[in-house]
Each structure stands twice: as structure tokens, then as C-alpha cells.
Amino acid sequence: MFKKVSFLTGNNRYRNLNRFQSRNHTTYSRGSLTSFFSNNNCNNNKNNNNNINNSFSFINSSFNNINKFYSTLNDTATTTTTTTNNKKNIDLSESNISNNLAEIKKLEILSQVPKPIEEFKDELLNCDPNKLNNNQRLLSSSFLWKYLGITNSSPKTLGEKELNKIWSFLDIDTKSIENKQEKEAIEIQQLIICLHSRYLIDRVIPLMNDIINNRDINSLSEKMIIQCFLLSAHLSRWQDMIKYGEKISAQIFGQLNLEPYYSHEFFPYKKIYELLINRSSTDDNKNDDSINKSSIQPWTQYNIHSLGFKNNQIKSENIPEESFKTTEKKYYDEMNLLKSKIMDQDEYIIANLGEIKYCLMFGGAVKLYLQMGGPPLVCGGVLKDNSIQLYGSFIFDDEFKNSVEIISEYNLDIVKNNLSNNIDGAISLIGTHKQIVSNLNTSNEKYIYTMDIKINLLKE
Q1: What is the dihedral of CA 71, 46, 57, 22, to 10 degrees?
Q2: If DSSP codes are grouped into helix, strand and coil, which group holds residue 232?
Q3: Which residues are CB-contacts of 42 (< 8 A; sequence separation ≥ 6)?
Q4: In the structure, what pLDDT confidence band is assigned to residue 132 with cuts at 50, 70 and 90?
């Protein structure tokens, strides 16, 4: 037996999935920084496959994993000591930077940092990176990066001064570096910090150009490919994202598919990739080569104020006619009942949404987390010219032990709504929505729902 999902109603047949969500979903809190700063996920993932851990420095939030990318450089650290002209000279040798980095890793989020750490931070902020060797510069950027993580209560409070200083340490021309390991360590550090800082993302565009235009993609390490894959989504490099995605293993993609449910601020990169490769026109996937800092959509979180739908239709494939007619009648009866109770001024039926509902935008990437009657579903999408395409899918077992797949597709335009005169504070996503519910245990029985949809968003 295969019962259709009671779409947009209160019927919920996904208790196991909901238990999974409540156990693993990390709700956003202003008291914790983005994934690259907190330490919770690292502790939970200690038993993961080592290869996944090494590749997923961006998932394991502890900065320890980022350090793995260049820790081997410390084996050849020099004993050169570099100091500034401050009244109190502090040792900036590689060994002392490493020691301070080790100390700061032991700290949690603090309102007050120990004085020696604070003094060392001040010394780094005032020093000239050009007087340090590459290894000292990498270690210094790591220290300041970690310092920001334990002293900020929100990613919105990260200081531009400190982030610019971090980049001054990382702004190393790697073209003349012959040591492949050193070169990759520097470049991966640049990619990771430029992505996760958000503010610095445009600084990595020249490196992204060099990697895709001048290097053999087959010679790139998996770590490098993954970072380029993630960055391509936010820099609207859709052709590049497809090329990198073709080199990513199924195992890594499996982790990419789950992480958006665990981490509030992690984008559904696999869904964005699937949307791209399933587009009917390859012209839609052309890179936006004009992208620059001023044209990059800032990292923005929207709370979903309300969601409305109208002009609903239900169709089926491979469902017995008599069974479908019964389902169809019940569905339209439900819709007519809702029309009589909860419609807005534009005749959209207001949906009953789950507790967690939000939309993230950063560069060309979009994340929509939504629950309407069935299991929570994360959709990933592409933002281009005030239009958004979204795609999401999820497979689970229903109460009859059927393997059920839900696929959601959105085609939306961003428009100003009447909730506010400030278009940045209140916007609507208006367009169409299609959802396909399939029984994978049979000859692909499907219910197909289509509708017009309006999602009202309020900027957090």
C-alpha cells in the first residue's frame, strides 16, 4: 500500500524522520558562531571515516581540521624570530606562534581572553606580514582566525580590520612556490577562510581563475576540489561547479547531502549541483564572469513570515484510476476547506509551517529550509537576476515500509512585498512550485502536485 503524502496539511507520517531531525538538527543561535568557529560537530564526528574528516574541514567545525592542511609545514619550521617595533617585543618565531595557536585552541567562546593571548594578538595585528616567512604567515592567520572565533558572539560582529589583517597574512603569490605541499597548504587556507569569513570571498577570485584556467583538474587534490566546488556556488561559477562536482566521490556527496540538516548555516551544495546538471539548457549554467565584491549578494538570513499557495492541482502516474480518484477528491475537498478559512488578500491559502523555517542567500547560492505537513526538506538553489530556482529531495521509509522519495522544485521571482517599504528587510518569492512524491518500492507510483506559491520573507 502506498498512501499519498497529505501535502500542506497536518498529517505527519514521518515520526522516525522527525526523531532523526530533532536529534541532529543544530538550531542557529546568536551565541554561537558559524560552523568554522564552534567545536560541537568535531566532538560528535570523532568516529567518522578519517578520509571524510580530512576532506571535510568545512564540516568539522574545529579549526584543528583546517590546520591539518598545512601542519606538515611545521616539521621544517625555522627558528627565525621576527619582532615588531612595539615597546614590548614579542617572539613571532614559528615555534612561538605555534605554541600560542595551541593555547588558543584550548579556549571556548570567551568574553575575556587571557592577557598573554591578547598581547600576542595585538602584536600580530601590528606586525608587517612581509617580514615573516610563509609558514609564519600561515600560522599567524590561523591564530587570528581562531581568536575571532572565541571572542565574537555572532558572525555579524566580525571586525573588518581583523579580517583584512588575516588576508594580509594570506595574500601570498603562490605561482613562484615550487614545493607542491607548501603551495597547496597556502591556497587551501586562502580558499577556506575566504569562503567562511564571507567578507573576504571576493579576494579569492584570482586564485579561482588560475585554478580553473591554468591547471589540470585531474591533478588537484580532493581537498582542493571540494573547496573550489563550494566556492563556485557562491561566486556564480556554475560551469566550474559542475566540473568540480564530477570529481567528487559518492561518499563525500553523501556527507554533503546530510550536512544542511545538521548545520543551520551550511548550504545544500549537492542539491545545487543536482539542479545544475538537470537543467534543460546548458546556457543557464554559464559562469557569471563579471562577479565582483559589489555584485556578490551579501550573506543574508531571512525568516519565513508566511507561505501561501493557490491554483493547486494533483496528478498521478502509475496509480490505479479508482484509487487516484478517491485521493483526488479528498485532496480538493481539503483545499476547498482551507480556502474558506485561511486566505490572504491575493487569495493565497496560508500554509501551516513547522517551527524551523528560514531562507539563506549568499552570492549565487540559496538555501530554503521548510516543513509543510511532511518531513523537513532542504532545497538548494541558484540566485540570478532577481530570480531563484530551487531543488530538493529526500528519501525515507513511510509507516508501510515503503521507500518514499519527495522532490520539490521552485521557480521564483524576488519582488517587494507590502510588509515593509524596505526591500532588503521584507521581500516575497513569487512563482510556481512542483512536488513529486514517489513510491520507490513499486513501478514508480507518483503523486504530482503543482501550484502557484508566495513566500514572504523578513530579513533577520
Answers
A1: -160
A2: helix
A3: 60, 61, 62, 64, 65
A4: very high
CA distance 374 to 396: 11
Cell 595551541 sits at which residue?
Answer: 102
Q: Which residues on adjacent β-strands are paired with residue 397?
A: 403
Question: DSSP readout, 332-383?
Answer: HHHHHHHHTT-B-TT-PEEP---S--EEEEETTEEEEEE-SSSS-EEEEEEE
Q: How far is CA 307 from CA 1, 350, 457, in A?
A: 31, 6, 9
**319-378 pLDDT tens trace:** 999 999 999 999 999 999 988 888 888 899 998 888 889 999 999 999 999 987 677 889
CA distance 129 to 42: 31
pLDDT beyond 60 at 234: yes
User: What are the CA-CA distances from residue 49 to residues 95, 156, 252, 441 (Å)?
Assistant: 31, 33, 11, 30
| R_g of the chain, CA atoms, integer Å | 24
Q: What 3-state DSSP class applies to 450? A: strand
Q: Residues 318-348, buried b or exposed e (16+ Cβ, 10 A)?
A: ebeeeebeebbeebeebbeebeeeeeeeeeb
